[in-house]
Amino acid sequence: MLIEDTFHHALTSIKSQWLRTVLIVLAMSIGIASVTVLIALSESARSYIVNEFEALGTHLVIVLPGRTETTGGAPPIFGETPRDLTLEDAGSLSRSPYIAAIAPLTIGVAPVTSAGLERETNVFGSTHELLRVRHLTMAQGIFLPKIDTDKALSICVIGQTIRKELFANTSALGQWLRINDRRFRVIGVLASEGESIGVDFDEMVIIPVASAQALFDTHSLFRILIEAKSREAMIKAVDEIKKIIKLRHEGEEDITIITQDSVVSAFNKILLALTVAVGCIGGISLIVAGVLVMNVMLVSVTQRTAEIGLLKALGASKTQVQWLFLAESILLSLVGALTGLLIGQLVISVIQTVYPKFPVDLPNWGLLSALGVSIFTGLAFGVLPARKAAGLDPIAALAKR
């Protein structure tokens, strides 16, 4: 019996039992659709979060005041009191040959007003290097100039939302903006950056770091953002930062250092595990569909006993009879898989329409694995009915016993 004869026979059998075929295809398609949608959602969530962190900057290192304790128990009472980070600390880090740019940050919330219009927003105090470290772009004007970090100037750079709310009908450049009780002249407007890891630069005012410290009456820094010269230099830069701060803080390593690579790697591993987990959960529905395929095929063997006996009487071997039923299982599973993929893509398209800012897409490996698992399911759960059919005695089968 030729291969084309085997599949022709399987197709004929499938067409003759349309209700059985519809039930099997429906069960298989639901399983495949659920697997593809779950994989697409989890994989897209992983890519989204990883891309968000990568958008923070290149080779980014974040220095925070205070040390993260991992040993448990109460914080130490003597000898390890965390110190604030200062502009002097940030300046001392410039000695490291592995650091390309340093942007100290002071952050506060204050009302900003112009021509009787007021809006409360976040105010960043930083330096010219913030433009490079955070990969910001200008829509109009210039960014903060290169000046000494301890020099306070009454200038500011605003985001697009602030420009629209306070300077809708006029050019913002050169206008005065009042922050609390101080006035700042607008020298630049950022291009629309959107929100990144909870920070919306469109709703932000950026002023020199010394001006921010005077505005909020503080000498400490919220963070120090650092760009390493390369990925290889990042590890050495971390060691240099620890060494320099330790010398300045009387031998105490009272800072926490977060590298961009470590954060991205941690989230990548967590969300990859989540992708595998939800894929396995969706696979349960495929097992249910496989059980249905097996049960229906066992019933089909009982109904086609005489047909099997005739085939064996005409000389069909056990292997050929087995492949007749396996081919039927594979075809049913494949049709169910293709139907499920179409349903899954339809659901993904609906999600993309409802949530356009969240890119949902099925990776190629998810598509191939769904097809592969469906064919494997058809084979695995079609073996028992096929072996039962191949084991029938020709004479007893022709007598329907």
TrEMBL record:
- EC assignment: 3.6.3.-
Q: Name one GO cellular component term.
A: plasma membrane
Q: Which UniProt keywords apply?
A: ATP-binding, Cell membrane, Hydrolase, Membrane, Nucleotide-binding, Transmembrane, Transmembrane helix
Statement: the UniProt record of this protein carries the keyword Coiled coil: no
| Keyword tRNA processing tagged | no
The family assignment reads:
Belongs to the ABC-4 integral membrane protein family.
Q: What is this protein called?
A: Macrolide export ATP-binding/permease protein MacB
